[in-house]
Design goal:
Keywords: NADP. The protein has helices at about 20-30, 40-50, 70-85, 105-135, 160-175, 210-215, 230-240, 245-250; strands spanning about 10-15, 35-40, 60-65, 90, 140-145, 185-190, 255. The protein is an alpha/beta fold and about 260 residues long. The chain has a single domain (about 10-255), classed as Rossmann fold. Bound molecules: nicotinamide-adenine-dinucleotide.
Length: about 260
């Protein structure tokens, strides 16, 4: 992380567990001020307990839903009240679908997945950009966590795939519109991760035909062999938090997937 007189102020969504918590802890270790939100109260409490003795005064862990504009506005206000500004937003919060297709995905699941994964990322970007433009000095950066599903048609069911393709569009559009306003936007296109909670979404069943199709098209994934280490993603986000690096990479969608699926 670049040396600066004041610590970087970072907001990571959906970071009470999984990848988000590893990224957040890495930024705390580097001396940043870190704000996380999540909708899982138990994991938020567990994370606060974990951090409270090691990083007192350096973090905020608050219940806030990324798909609610008023909740995210209030959260960013709380961040600015405590840390003075917002330098970096990492759009991490997401939910998986049940590997269903256009014919089988319910409207309810479609709305829920798009509501969190793409409307949520839009809302957080909107609120962060307003703050980044208003603060002095102005500016900041956004990192969107995309997926192989941002570019492949068969790395998830329809709703997740559409949402993650949307994250790529959000990245490119934001990067272009804010190029001259001191705000950058990049996407990390992740492969498979181990030790996260993303499969919670499938706790009440999933489409076996959909999973079989994905395995057929995306074969070769093995936990412990080609899953992407969470710490590597976290360190890459720290690398991207360098303003000059983020400017050069503005608009980029970087594959970060251990070359899985090979050849895509
Ligand atoms: N797990 C994988 O294999 C994988 C692969 C590619 C990309 N990704 C992406 O990486 C990111 C992190 O995923 P993960 O595997 O750590 O998942 P995870 O389920 O462990 O973490 C996501 C967090 O988001 C939270 N969340 C859900 N809805 C929310 C809402 N409305 N508001 C705020 N928080 C909310 C969840 O409670 C959870 O803590 C996601 O963007 C995901 O799409 C994951």
């Amino acid at each position: 992380m670049p040396e600066s007189s004041s610590p970087l102020s970072v907001l990571i969504t959906g970071a009470a567990g999984g990848l988000g918590r590893v990224i957040a802890t890495t930024f705390l270790e580097k001396g940043a001020n870190v704000a996380i939100c999540d909708v899982n109260k138990e994991r938020l409490a567990e994370t606060s307990d974990l951090w409270s003795t090691k990083y007192p005064g350096k973090f905020i862990a608050q219940h806030a839903d990324v798909s609610s504009l008023p909740e995210m506005e209030a959260f960013v206000q709380a961040i600015v009240a405590q840390f003075g500004r917002l330098d970096l937003l990492i759009n991490n919060a997401a939910i998986l679908d049940k590997f269903e297709s256009a014919g089988t995905c319910s409207l309810e699941l479609w709305d829920r997945v798009l509501g969190v994964n793409i409307t949520g990322a839009f809302i957080c970007s909107k609120v962060a950009i307003h703050q980044m433009l208003a603060q002095s000095p102005p500016g900041g950066s956004i990192i969107n966590l995309g997926s192989n599903a941002s570019v492949c048609g068969t790395d998830g069911g329809l709703a997740y795939t559409v949402s993650k393709h949307g994250v790529l569009a959000l990245t490119r559009n934001t990067a272009a519109y804010y190029l001259d306003k001191g705000i950058t936007c990049t996407m990390v296109q992740l492969g498979g991760l181990a030790h996260t909670n993303i499969q919670d979404s499938m706790a009440h069943g999933f489409d076996k035909e959909g999973i079989a199709l994905i395995n057929k098209h995306m074969g070769g994934f093995e936990y412990g062999v080609n899953d992407v280490p969470l710490e590597d993603v976290a360190n890459f986000c720290v690398f991207l938090s360098d303003k000059e690096m983020a400017k050069t990479m503005n608009g980029a969608a970087v594959p970060f997937n251990r070359n899985w699926p090979a050849g895509h």
